[in-house]
Fold:
Amino acid sequence: MPRLKRLASAFEPFMLLMGIVGPLATLPQLFKLFFSHTEHALGLSLTTWVLYALLAALWAVYGFVHKNPPIWVGNSLGFLMDMAMVIGIFWHTGGTF
Structure:
């Protein structure tokens, strides 16, 4: 069991990095929504992005309560990205679901 704990401990910084990189994958979508393809906002689901934001917020709280940085850092950043999508969709569509 100590070997498994050492492996998990060594894996922690990598997962923290992935928790940061993962949400950044939303940046191209945000760029299109706000700058290059704003006319396609009606094709995006506000409901989906609100649910993504809610789930990310819940995971962030869970990670914070359990003192697990890869969970709370990544999901906090994910929440911010998801909320930016929500704001952009709402802005360009007036709130379609």
